Amino acid sequence: MKNTKIFNKKDYLFGNNNPKKFYGLPKEVKFCTICTYSNQKPNSEQEYKHSIKRKKLIINFNKKNICSACTISIEKKKINWKARENELIELCNKYRKTNGEYDCIVPGSGGKDSMYASYILKYKYNMNPLTVTWAPHIYTDWGKKNFYNWLANGFDNYLLTPNTKVQRLLTRLSLENIFHPFQPFMMGQMYFPPKMALNLNIKLVFYGENPTDYGNQNKENKTAKKNLEYFSVKNTNNIFIFCLILKELKKYGLNKNDLKNYMPPNVDDLIKKKIDVRYLGYYLKWEPQKNFYYVSENCNFLPAPERSAGTYSKYPSIDDKMDDLHFYTTYIKFGIGRATYDSAQEIRNNELKREEGIKLIRQYDGEYPVRFEKELFEYLSIDDETFGKISKQFKSPLFDRNTLLSLTNKFRSPHLWYYDTKKNRFLLRKTI
Questions:
Q1: 46-55 confidence digits (pLDDT tens)
Q2: What is the CATH number of domain 81-283?
Q3: Rounded to the nearest 5 degrees, what angle is found at the Cα of 124, between the Cα atoms of 121 and 129?
Q4: C-beta of residue 409 within 8 angstroms of C-beta of residue 397
Q5: Residue 230, Cα to own-chain centre: how many angstroms?
């Protein structure tokens, strides 16, 4: 997409042999020889540690230029899945309640994976799961239908719909400060399930796949337990909320009550109540596309009627209109768009050949998210009527395409991008 807003062209010269790099990313761009990931891909980590100066944790590549996600995929082929399932049965036998009470929590939105996890736990392993959901920013029509289809399969649900005014403000701050419009949602979504486990005294929480499937450190794949550090803290005074420490958020009119749903639980409380958080994907062979086929056949899961912006797929992460913008920002920051994420996962699961993935990336990766643009820009606007004097703290309170393009210039790393003066647009220095 063309971008004529102000930026330092010297930083983005094609012939610049030593361009600046942001976020602590590797200077040399490399691509996995098995999938389509580059070595610029960030790993999931503690969201409350994000600050503008923090070096990103990046996917590992071995000496053969194979990424850690593919290494894990290769190792998984050696797993005795029947033995792993027996471990799951033992775990369920330990926690199962026969009096009808909830015995585990399954977080999710009614997407393919949470629908699969809850359904299989209830109807194959005779558990009594409670589903819990942090509401999307803006539901897609098909996302809302799938949410209710999920519950229609026999599930109770606790839905937390955050204060829209607060969520809008925090999302805008996150976008302005770290170009991450999904962080408020991610923090709420991550911390809500263990808080519900504490509040309702439900000991067992099941997530889906382990983040090692997407590149996190291999050592995390050796256990079914989710590390408590991902979603809990000991001292909330030392955390960042959307790249700001708590006291900095007061100038935006936010108090502790406004922020409580975005705060991680105390780790000592989780340990004291013996909350046990597990990955179901440790016990069962987790393949997202097969989960999609399963819930389509058994649970009335509906794919989107159109492909998602920036990719070719119609079934993963389709419930929130903010998804389109989120994946666009990852493309700007890391040179990795949604088609890269989708194709890499499908290549590892033998659903797609690498050559096909590369063609799809060239066709769709980094596509500007037009389809929900109007609604998203209204959502991200800090208008005077709704926010009063807080709106004056933003250089551009009303959000539009020019505002977004200015932000892309701020967060686009020169070591990934150069500016083509003839085409009047940014291009990646190195592509797959």
A1: 655 655 566 7
A2: 3.40.50
A3: 25
A4: no
A5: 13
